[in-house]
Design brief:
single chain
Amino acid sequence: SATTPGPATAVVSLVSRAIILLQCAIASLSATPCPTNIQQQTDHLDWQKCEAYYQLAEQMLSKETGTPSLESAQARFLTVLYLLGTSRMNQAWFNFGQTVQLLMAIGVHRKQTRLDSPTSEITLQCSKRLLWCCFTLDQYLSLILGRPRLLREEDIDQEYPSLINDENIGSTHS
């Protein structure tokens, strides 16, 4: 009957919830063909479920306030992947622009040493992975849309992420 969360209860941020919804949308999308001429009613309903996850995540992201964060950039990157998966190239391009702006604002494109900031190895590897995924996607979008790239190689001095499995990041590579 207490209104205060107990020690086992964690508060999950809007962005974290949006990331989970976007992962569900992308996973559902990969199992559901996008209806072109609505082959079957079932396919269309499955696609609507994917879209509902996406729309709910977008609503959460629109309520986000505060300074830019890695988590925000990750969420925006997932929106781009979802939009590409649903053949909304122009909307994906616009969302990708926001993602790149967030990356630049938080300085992911700049090399950091462990002495520069108390960033955990997991966060550092995640930021590197996001940057280089965005760099690759930028090349792809530029090619298929015939538009200039947003990330210039000369502006990036960040190293590539380590070739290490996720479960080993904190233990053997710190």
